[in-house]
Amino acid sequence: MRYNALKILTEGLTGNKGWRPAWRTPEPKPAYDIVIIGGGGHGLSTAYYLAREHGLRNVAVLEKGRLGLGNVGRNTTIVRANYFLPGNSEFYSMSLKLWEGLSADLNYNVMHSQRGLINLFHSDGQRDAFVRRGNAMINQGDDAVLLDREGVRKMLPYLDFEQGRFPIYGGLYHPRGGSARHDAVAWGYARGADSRGVDLVQNCEVTGIDVEGGRVTGVQTTRGAIRANKVAIVTAGRSGQVAALAGLRLPIESHVLQAFVTEGLKPVIDHVISFGMGHFYISQSDKGGLVFGGDLDFYPSYAQRGNLPMVEHVMEAGMTLMPMIGKAKVLRSWGGIMDMTPDGSPIIDKAPIDGLYLDCGWCYGGFKAVPGSGFALAHLIATGRPHPDAAGFRLDRFRTGRGLMDEEGTGAQHNLH
Ligand SMILES: Cc1cc2nc3c(=O)[nH]c(=O)nc-3n(C[C@H](O)[C@H](O)[C@H](O)COP(=O)(O)OP(=O)(O)OC[C@H]3O[C@@H](n4cnc5c(N)ncnc54)[C@H](O)[C@@H]3O)c2cc1C
């Protein structure tokens, strides 16, 4: 069923009785060509591009819970392509281009809103770093505009320009940055994959990965054994646990990241803003809530909740930047589990077991990567070759030390991840 304005009008006038579920609820088959473990953003987009780009439809996505209830539905929805160094920058540039056509491509409104993202800087040194980053972005065909203090004041007059501790020197403006509706991204990819024949199997936890003679042969699940020629582990914060089912130890730690949303307010914040002195970022959702977050909780955990010191840290940063938000009531906070790599960059690669693939290590930034990651992993699975824009995301860089990718562009500082 294609969605369009006429369909909405007709359904509205006839009691909305003609809508059908956006995807089927199939029983798992005994065998597939490809099994994807994890029905988050990355797993669903991989399935979609396998079917759409490569015509591979004998594919199942196995999700232990319900589709889209993991990190893809728990993040602060920032979408951007303002990475600095080669390795990451071309990948996120490619991903943003996919975002720009995504609603039309999926025939599903993912509410991608290019409202512009502004990274504030607060010292001469930070300004120099952002100038370099902006130049790198422009050189690669992306957009960046350097704003001085008055330029920022014109766009964001409600920031506190008077406080002396972290004075606002200016900002790097990325007009094509913005946000998207997270659930809609999962649902849109799910619908697109399902309509091309992919089986999306919910409430199906993978409990074992079968390996014979160095080759993957299938998976064990809570709904029985499933044979497969190829298996991809796309389980975000649970990647370490799931890879261990195949006897692999990944260079990943799982950490909690929290987010917060206030009561709905009238439009007040037009852009996505990030504070350069304290890791705080904020935007306003289409429902009016101020959505914001900060740093990781800084200790490994699988609990989808956070600790109070980080709540305090985030609130302090927000109040320092824009004291007006102190008047808004926080409605909810929650946590998600981040798959952190030592260099802050992801892994899209073949595992050292034939037929097994890895897509993980997205840290706190994998939402913006959903289209690009699915596109690149589908390419790798279908062709056996890495996608050129994701060729640096190799697993062996952590063993050899060659090709490590400094995600922040700030040098090898582990505490930044
Ligand atoms: C609070 C917060 C804020 C964030 N903000 C941003 C942001 O602004 N911008 C950005 O780019 N990124 C952001 N992120 C990061 C982003 O959400 C993640 O990197 C990304 O969603 C991870 O990929 P995914 O969507 O596939 O993960 P998930 O949605 O977590 O998908 C993984 C799936 O695997 C399933 N699974 C796990 N184990 C098994 C098993 N054994 N069998 C079957 N299924 C299994 C899980 O149930 C889950 O559904 C944020 C994350 C959080 C938590």
UniProtKB/TrEMBL annotation:
Q: Origin, by domain of life?
A: Bacteria
Keyword check for Nucleotide-binding:
yes
SUPFAM superfamilies named in the record: FAD-linked reductases, C-terminal domain, FAD/NAD(P)-binding domain
Q: Return the Gene3D superfamilies for the record.
A: D-Amino Acid Oxidase, subunit A, domain 2, FAD/NAD(P)-binding domain
Ordered alphabetically, the record's keywords are:
Cytoplasm, FAD, Flavoprotein, FMN, Nucleotide-binding, Oxidoreductase
Q: What is its EC number?
A: 1.5.3.24
Q: Quickly give the catalysed reaction.
A: sarcosine + O2 + H2O = formaldehyde + glycine + H2O2; sarcosine + (6S)-5,6,7,8-tetrahydrofolate + O2 = (6R)-5,10-methylene-5,6,7,8-tetrahydrofolate + glycine + H2O2
Predominantly, its location class is cytoplasm
Instruction: Output the InterPro entries linked to this UniProt entry.
Output: FAD-dep_OxRdtase (IPR006076), FAD/NAD-bd_sf (IPR036188), Rhodanese-like_dom (IPR001763), SoxB (IPR006278)
GO terms in the biological process aspect are: tetrahydrofolate metabolic process
**Location(s) in or outside the cell:** Cytoplasm
GO MF terms listed in the record are: nucleotide binding; sarcosine oxidase activity
Cofactor(s) demanded: FMN; FAD
User: Is Oxidoreductase found in the keyword set?
Assistant: yes
Residue ranges of every copy of the Rhodanese domain listed in the record = 34-78
Under the cellular component aspect of Gene Ontology, which terms does the record hold? Answer: cytoplasm
Describe the family membership recorded for this protein in Swiss-Prot or TrEMBL.
Belongs to the SoxB family.
Q: Which NCBIfam families match?
A: soxB
**Protein's UniProt name:** Sarcosine oxidase subunit beta
Q: Which organism is it from?
A: Vannielia litorea
